[in-house]
Design goal:
Elements: E1 7-10, E2 17-18, H1 20-33, H2 41-45, H3 52-59, H4 65-81, E3 88-89, H5 93-102, E4 106-114, H6 115-124, E5 133-137, H7 147-157, E6 164-168, H8 171-180, E7 183-187, H9 194-198, E8 205-206, H10 209-216
Helix pairs in contact: 1-4, 7-8
Length: about 220
């Protein structure tokens, strides 16, 4: 069996794993500890994907830097001790990765999650072994665009951008793929929306892991 692309890059949260319980749990605790009202579930879910600092600055610009720093510390304490494991790999993902790898595709994770929690999750769920490359933010959570995580993988692998595809669930994944010059497919079982990805130029979407497999197979 052959595949459409030589290199498949996967986002982590909302693409490989359903990380909502651990992330939203950490956010709730952080809001409570800094004395802010806990936002509704729909607002909390918007934090899944981009760096926490970036999303706080975007959604709560009135929050002072000292409070932001405290929030991130409380969130990380929760996530590192509990939240990373309040998570699950989407059904069918492990089989898909094994099939892609057996068919000769190179595989990578490109996630905006900082290195330490990202590697904790990947190791815990057995997602390191299938991957040829792992590209994360550093632990400062500087919040660069997703293209800065995709481009180093292209360089290291030697695969042209036209032969690579980014698989993700948010506008950050779609925009990063566009700026890096790779193909993109949006998964609608994650945390973003088709509309926001379309605004970043996305054209291809799948609703399940099985549909993702069908998209990646070279018919």
């Amino acid at each position: 069996m052959s595949f459409r692309y030589d290199l498949v890059l996967f986002d982590l949260d909302g693409t490989l794993t359903d990380s909502a319980p651990g992330i939203t749990g950490g956010l709730k605790e952080a809001f409570q500890k800094i004395g802010w009202p806990v936002p509704p579930r729909e607002t909390l879910r918007k934090f899944i994907g981009p760096p926490v600092r970036n999303k706080l600055n975007e959604m709560f610009p009135e929050m002072k830097e000292e409070a932001v720093a405290e929030f991130i510390r409380f969130y990380r304490d929760y996530y590192n001790s509990r939240g990373a494991y309040e998570n699950s790999v989407y059904p069918g993902i492990m089989d898909l990765l094994a099939e892609l790898r057996a068919g000769g595709a190179l595989l990578a994770v490109a996630t905006s999650k900082p290195a330490t929690p990202a590697k904790r999750v990947l190791n815990h769920f057995g997602l390191v072994q299938p991957m040829d490359y792992i590209s994360t933010e550093d632990d400062s959570e500087s919040g660069r665009g997703k293209e800065h995580l995709i481009l180093p993988v292209l360089e290291r692998s030697g695969v042209p951008a036209s032969r690579a595809v980014m698989v993700g669930d948010t506008k950050y994944d779609a925009g990063g793929a566009r700026r890096a010059g790779t193909n993109f497919v949006g998964v609608l079982y994650g945390f973003g929306s088709q509309e926001e990805m379309e605004r970043e130029g996305a054209e291809n979407f799948v609703g399940s892991v099985e549909e993702l497999r069908e998209f990646l197979v070279d018919k």
